[in-house]
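Long-time lurker, first post. I've been practising inverse folding by hand and with some scripts of my own, and I keep getting stuck on stretches where the structure tokens seem ambiguous. Below is the full token string for one chain I'm working on. Before anyone asks, I'm not after the true native sequence, just a reasonable design that respects the backbone. If someone could post their per-position residues I'd love to compare against what I wrote down in my notebook.
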């Protein structure tokens, strides 16, 4: 079953690429915009999994995003996006 899902996803991505459609809309992909080491904006997220001063873990449709650093805070969040501020050291994508 995993193999069929991978083939289907690959085919879907090829069609979207060939038609030059926006991946964020068609695949629900997260958009991560980082400004320096002090600010990150995450769009198309599903939920906040963990929130501490030193890390914030966010669930997206396709993966989890882990933002690590110091004095991290969620400045605001809406249904579509959130803004993380503080000193960002690393950003990791988790399966």
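-- Answer (accepted) --
I ran through it position by position. Result:
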């Amino acid at each position: 079953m995993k193999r069929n899902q991978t083939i289907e996803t690959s085919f879907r991505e090829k069609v979207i690429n060939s038609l030059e459609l926006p991946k964020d809309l068609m695949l629900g992909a997260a958009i991560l915009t980082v400004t320096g080491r002090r600010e990150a904006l995450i769009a198309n997220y599903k939920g906040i999994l963990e929130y501490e001063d030193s890390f914030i873990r966010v669930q997206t449709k396709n993966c989890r995003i882990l933002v690590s650093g110091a004095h991290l805070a969620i400045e605001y969040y809406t249904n579509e996006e959130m803004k993380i501020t503080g000193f960002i050291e690393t950003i990791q994508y988790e399966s």
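A couple of notes from the structure itself: The beta strands are 31-35, 39-43, 45-51, 55-60, 64-77, 81-94. Residues 28-94 form a domain with the Immunoglobulin-like fold (CATH 2.60.40.2000). Happy to go over any region you disagree with.
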